[in-house]
Amino acid sequence: MIGRLISEMQLGCGRDVVCVLEEHLQRRIAFDRAIFLLMILRESCGLRAFSNGLASTAQAHVDGISINAVAMSLARPFETVRRHVHALIRDEICQRARHGVIVRNETLALPAFAALLRSLHDRMVSVIEDLARADIPLPPCHGDRFYDPNATIAAAIDLVLAPFDYIRDGYANWLEMVVVNAVATATARKITLDPVLSRRYGDATTTPPENVREPVAIAALARALRMSYSTVRREVETAIASGKLMRAGQGVLVTSAHLSSDIMIVGGERAAAHVAQVLRRLGPGGFRFDDPTHCYLDGKPPLLAFE
User: Fold this and answer.
1) Is the pLDDT of residue 56 over 60?
2) CA distance 23 to 229
């Protein structure tokens, strides 16, 4: 249950970053670049001040994160990371700091990027609201403390980046992982949104049968993820060949074997433990676990559309 809710948030946040980059630069952006930007942004969020979810333009002395650290954290070749980070610097989205790279203050102050931060924040709040509605135990509320939206933004970025750590080894590449995760999320949405079904198939030992899940078309995946049809189709074919996906009707499903595999079970357990750890960090920041809706900046964001 927790994994399905987090997957919805991860896909929505990833799509938000890609959209903002593409609209700002007026060209298509590789998914990898959005992930590298989030890694750099996480350092920026952790070291700079935010006001009501908007980045401060005040100058700050920060070290940033090195290209080598990004490469090691995300297990990507140094040259690949270097190429993408240098492109972000050329596009004046990031800049060099004393010992690494940061997102520019001027970038974070732009309306589109300020809105992105608010969206990341509200998607995190939405997950916590859904967890509370599902009666998942949450940390104690420190209602007497001033609420810090920056902590929630950082938590959202942390959770978006987490799969690239704990389940990436089970896939041929990043894109296959993202596409398979998108298929799993889209085809299980009926379960995610139905309180009865969500509880019935709420743990790793209760894999939803194929007739309960709804196939998703490759074209719908491509539109939702802002990827080319050919790219998504290639990753789908790779996943079918490896037994992760299967054709069903006019679309695809995640195979029951993959959903019940050690990769998914262990990944789900690690995800749940990581979520609990992240939520505990929000308590001292004044997050209203007693009523998460009080923390929204702009309101509950819509789910990613697979149409």
Assistant:
1) no
2) 20
